[in-house]
Every structure is written in structure tokens, then in C-alpha cells.
Design brief:
Keywords: Hydrolase, Protease, Signal. Pfam families: TAXi_C (PF14541), TAXi_N (PF14543). The protein is α+β, with helices and mostly antiparallel strands. The chain is about 15% helix and about 30% strand. The chain contains eight helices and 31 strands.
């Protein structure tokens, strides 16, 4: 412990020395914005759109759906203030991060013990994304249709999960959701999956309802949330674009923190995720662009297919972790502050070891970027040095580096660049210095973790189109591409 402290002191001294020898810092102008005010929710999607079947002759489609933010829904139903909504977001974020760390560190899993005895056309489409509410399931969700005729409902989008699932009647126990609970008996496209089928065997934990030869599933999350029910195939509809034969869980017992949304659209790398299941139809590519609601009224979006790959994106290779195939691992090799590499932050801090621990993932559902603690301390100290002209303020929640910017409309702050293998990503100032209350307190939006795993969160991803290209095994970042 003493050796680590001495090393950190030495790194801080070296960084100060580096700055003293540098004629000037690279700076960004931070235009100050207050916490986002909830907006009125747009009208819900209709229960049916002109259907477009999947056929070999269907032309490539470009679709965009209106986006809403979960805080807007929460404000409308609860009357919470902007500060209260932000505090809830940080609570959700802590639960999310702890869930991921538990899985990555081998303390938890995406599935637990089973309750049952074991037994091509190419097109593009896009969908609206809504910033989310379920603590264990991610921060964004979209509205899509399930079944035939399609019933439109909100579903969480989660790059940290694989299994697609919705709440279904009859309910042993179902949580409250915005839309009516799905009734498979009223869908003409609902099909049970047999116990010994390939899809059933791909589940981490599967079971068998023997009397009916139906596959059963159970998925549990690190925060205690879970869903249990029948594994089946169904048609999903995105504004009239039908995606047939999607394997999904029809949950009859769903408990925990998924309040509001009807279920989850798993966007992970696993074999049962939505991108993997539909890979041949959409070229195994998708992307999303998440806006900073405090600074922009533009919508967020998710796009599947060839058009999801931005021409302005810089790419870094996807890294494989055989021990945990759900997450999107990338190689972070350094970070710069004010135009200078931070000493001590090297790729060695972010390596995946032989047990599968460590590494860096890009995650849509975690808000605040968590860095393994030695890297975070070095980054924090470098930023504090570069921002020494700003008036300091008390910490807030998980943030230990905050500033009092009252009376100002803009300030100059050191640049922050994340260096991935083959891709340098320069963050806008709003992506790392954010408002946390209505008293002009702004905090450095990074945090440290004792876990070996680091997470690139969605605050740092704001304004970038983040591209997941499984064909070429790469992740891309295109700045200013949310329009």
C-alpha cells in the first residue's frame, strides 16, 4: 500500500514537472448548461404500421423514430425536480456498475439456477432511443412492436445483456409497465421453442416444461432483478419493418427494478443477442448516438445495418474475452490531459488477464466512466492541475473533483483525449465536466473503481455515433454525428 502511494506521488510530481515545461495547455471552451429540464413526451407509436415483410427483394430501408428520455416520463409521473432526477440517475448508475463488476469479477452472472428440470434479407432500420430507468438493465430504451398484429411497447436497450425478453400473461408476478402486458395467445406469430432445440441450448441457464416440451429460461442480474418464463420465437416490428423469428423470453415472473419498460432488447455480443440473431439481415452492424440533453434538443437514435457505420468514425479493434463474451471490450492505451499524455496511464493497466478479469468495455447503460483506481487517480490529479484556476467546490456523490462556476457562462478547461488502439477520441468539454445541481456546481465525470474492469460510460459517449461492427471486429467513434 505504501509502495502504491509513493508511486502515485511520484507520478503526480512528474506530471507537474511536465506541465511546468510545457508552454501552454490545450484547452476546450466549456459553455455552461444547467441540468436538463424534463420535456413533454411525444405521442406513443400506433399499434400498427404498414407492414413490410422480410423478402429477398425488399430494398434497404432507412428509418428513424422519435426519442424520449426516461427522466421526462419520471418527471411527468412523479413531479421530481432536475436535481432529484439526476440523483436517481446516479443511484441507477451505481447499481448498474456494481452489477457489471460482479459479473466481470466472477461474483455474479447474467443467469442463476434454473427453475425447471433440464431437458435473410439485408436491410437497414433505425429506432428511437429513450434514456432509461431500470437499474440492472441499462439507461436507454426504445418503442417497438411485438407479435402479430404488433403491440408497441417500450423496451430497454442494453449492450451489457444478451437475452431479449418481455413480460407476458399470465403473470405469476409482473412489475408495473407503461403499456399493456403482452398476451402471447393473441399473437399469430408466437411459437414455442422445444426443449432440446439449438436456441434453448444456447441459454446460460435453460430448463424444460416437460409436459409441453417447451424451453424455459431464467436470467438474473447482479442487482437482484430477474425474469423467468418460456423461451419462444416471435416477430418484432420497427415502424413497419418486421424482423421474424427472434428468440426471446416470455417472462411470467419478473421481479426487481425494470419498472416502466415492458422488457429488454439485449445488444451484447453473445449468441442470443438481437444483433447476433439478426446479423445476416443487418450485416452484423449497429450504432447509436446519445445526445447531451442539457445542451441539445436533437434526438438520440439506434441504427442497424450498413448505414450505421459513419464515414467519419475512427475505429479501434474489438478485443475478445473468452471468459465473458457479452461485453464489447476495447484496448485503451492512454489518456491525455491538456495535450500531454498522463504519466502512468498505459495499456498495461487495462489488460485482460488469463482469468478473464480486467479490460475495458464500452457500455451504453453505464453513465459515468469508471477507470481502475491507479488510472483514475492519475487522470484526476492531472485534470486538477490543469484546471487549478477554477474555484473548487465540495464533492458530490461519487465525484471527488468539483468546481464552483457560479456567475460564469463559459470557462476554459484542459482537453481530455482517450487513446484507444488505433483511435484517438477527443472528448467535448461537456462530456467530462457536467452540472450536478442548480447551484452551478460542475464535477469531473469520471470515477475510480477497485475492480480490474474499466467501463467507458455514456456521458463520455455523448454526441458520438458509436459503431459496433462485428463483421470487421471493431468499434468506431464519430464525433458530432447525432443529427
Amino acid at each position: 500500500m505504501k509502495t502504491l502511494s509513493n508511486s502515485l506521488l511520484l507520478l503526480s510530481f512528474l506530471f507537474l514537472l511536465t506541465f511546468s515545461l510545457t508552454t501552454s495547455l490545450d484547452l476546450h471552451t466549456l459553455t455552461l448548461h444547467s441540468l436538463p429540464k424534463p420535456a413533454s413526451l411525444g405521442p406513443p407509436e400506433p399499434n400498427s404500421w404498414p407492414a413490410q415483410e422480410e423478402t429477398e427483394t425488399t430494398a434497404t430501408l432507412e428509418l428513424s423514430l422519435t426519442l424520449d428520455h426516461i427522466d421526462d416520463a419520471l418527471a411527468a409521473s412523479s413531479g421530481l425536480s432536475s436535481e432529484e432526477l439526476f440523483s436517481l440517475r446516479l443511484d441507477r448508475d451505481a447499481a448498474r456498475a456494481n452489477s457489471i463488476f460482479a459479473r466481470a469479477d466472477g461474483l455474479g452472472s447474467s443467469s442463476s439456477s434454473s427453475l425447471y428440470k433440464r431437458g435473410n434479407s439485408s436491410r437497414d432500420f433505425s429506432s428511437s432511443v429513450v434514456s432509461g430507468l431500470a437499474q440492472g438493465s441499462g439507461e436507454y430504451f426504445t418503442r417497438l412492436g411485438v407479435g402479430t398484429p404488433p403491440r408497441y411497447m417500450y423496451m430497454v436497450l442494453d449492450t451489457g445483456s444478451d437475452v431479449v425478453w418481455i413480460q407476458c400473461l399470465p403473470c405469476k408476478k409482473c412489475y408495473d409497465q407503461t403499456d399493456r402486458i403482452f398476451n402471447p395467445a393473441q399473437s399469430g406469430s408466437f411459437r414455442s421453442i422445444p426443449c432440446r432445440s439449438k436456441a434453448c441450448n444456447l441459454l446460460d441457464q435453460s430448463g424444460c416444461i416437460r409436459r409441453a416440451n417447451k424451453c424455459a429460461y431464467q436470467v438474473s442480474y447482479g442487482d437482484g432483478s430477474f425474469t423467468i418464463g418460456e423461451f419462444a420465437s416471435e416477430t418484432m416490428t420497427f415502424r413497419g419493418v418486421k424482423v421474424q423469428n427472434v428468440a426471446l423470453g416470455c417472462g411470467h415472473d419478473n421481479e426487481g427494478l425494470f419498472v416502466g419498460a415492458a422488457g429488454l432488447l439485449g445488444l451484447g455480443r453473445g449468441k442470443l443477442s438481437f444483433p447476433t440473431q439478426t446479423g445476416t439481415r443487418f450485416g452484423q452492424k449497429f450504432s447509436y448516438c446519445l445526445v447531451d440533453r442539457s445542451a441539445s434538443s436533437k434526438p438520440s437514435s439506434v441504427v442497424f445495418g450498413g448505414s450505421s457505420v459513419s464515414r467519419t468514425a475512427v475505429f479501434t479493434p474489438l478485443i475478445s474475452n473468452p471468459k465473458l463474451d457479452t461485453f464489447y471490450y476495447v484496448e485503451l492505451v492512454g489518456i491525455s490531459v491538456g495535450g500531454t499524455r498522463v504519466p502512468g496511464i498505459t495499456g498495461e493497466l487495462f489488460k485482460i488477464d488469463r482469468t478473464g478479469s480486467g479490460g475495458v468495455i464500452v457500455d451504453s447503460g453505464t453513465s459515468v466512466t469508471r477507470l481502475t483506481r491507479p488510472a483514475y487517480l492519475a487522470l484526476r490529479d492531472a485534470f486538477r492541475t490543469g484546471a487549478s484556476s477554477l474555484k473548487s467546490a465540495p464533492g458530490f456523490s461519487l465525484f471527488d473533483t468539483c468546481f464552483d462556476l457560479s456567475g460564469k457562462t463559459e470557462v476554459r478547461v484542459p482537453t481530455v483525449v482517450m487513446h484507444f488502439r488505433g483511435a484517438d477520441v477527443s472528448l467535448p468539454a461537456n462530456n467530462y465536466l457536467i452540472p450536478v445541481d442548480t447551484s452551478s456546481r460542475f464535477c469531473f465525470a469520471f470515477a475510480g473503481t477497485m475492480s480490474g474492469l474499466s467501463i467507458i460510460g455514456n456521458i463520455q459517449q455523448q454526441g458520438f455515433r458509436v459503431v459496433f461492427d462485428m463483421t470487421q471486429r471493431r468499434v468506431g467513434f464519430a464525433p458530432g454525428a447525432c443529427s
